[in-house]
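HUMAN: Mind sharing a backbone?

ASSISTANT:
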Amino acid sequence: MLDGASKGNSAILHTGFDAPEASVELACIRDGYALYHQIREKLGLPVIRSGAMVLAWSEAEVAELPRLMAQAVANGVTDVQALTGPEALALEPGLSPRVLAGFRVPGEHLIDPWSAAHGYLLQALENGATLMRQAEVLTGRRAGGVWHLATTAGAVQARLVINAAGLWGDEVDRRVTGETWFTIKPRKGQFVVYDKTASSLLGHIILPVPTKVTKGIVVCRTVYGNLLVGPTAEEQDDREHASVDRPTLQALMRRGEEILPALAGHEVTAVYAGLRPATEEKEYRIRTDLAEDYICVGGIRSTGLSAALGIAAHVLRLAAHDWVPLADPVWPVMPSLTDCAPRDWQKPGHDGILCHCELVTKREVEAALTGPLPRAASAG
């Protein structure tokens, strides 16, 4: 629960400017982007309207820029702006003078992956959903128009099954339908997080020219007031462990300092790694025809956070059931954990600060331990 790809990403709300043209991924990113902006105030979700710059550091990368800009326009992102090296430096003086050219994507934003995923789950619970934890799917069979799932937490019956198992999506396919049409190959991304003093070095999200394999190393602020460098793109077989290693982290730091030289004087305060559920294809692996009333949502790689709400809307259309939306759904407001809005420590009656590094109050901790999600988890 919020412990897979959702916890280990770059926390960027993408426009889809570099998504495969005319793809399901692009449609889901566009819809997800719009829906996030529509609901974020109701759920109290943060956003930093930073914009992004795609920068070229070699002549070969410069040659790719016109194609990438044309792709952005074809994808509906028509406000991209070409930049010379001096223009990029004028916008971000801290960049290395080695930058040759690039373009700006004003609509790229920074968000909080924890609050988004937590908010979506909490709203589901507040509106009648049931949460089952430690419920590994073992087998599935369909009889009498109903799915019967055996799990380690007991039997479950359902009219419709949606497989959104992330790093285990292909295995759940096999267990439920007896077949699968893709193979998960976990792709690890390691990250370095710099101290909050480094966030003043940069305003934009700094993106590289992407390759066929990865979007590449990003340098950006976080909504928590830090500065982030990463991720790597390392294929592995292990689906459960995302370890970090010193040589790779040191290489990330060197790359960050090549892009933003002043980083060399700032302290690294955290490192982490995440696993992306990559497959044989770059495209999302969403399919409805393996079995009746069964939808597989697999291969949601590096754009899953941006596309999440769009994927949900897409799956709802695929389900083809007469679902009746709630007339007046509950909209729980997420606590502010970022620098984008006033924090609890700034309000009276918080009973003291328990973590002075991140300014976490006793009231925030108590709310996290006693709210609807812990109660549901305990009941499950």
Remarks:
- The first strand starts at residue 12 and ends at 13.
- The radius of gyration is 22 Å.
- The chain has nine helices and 20 strands.
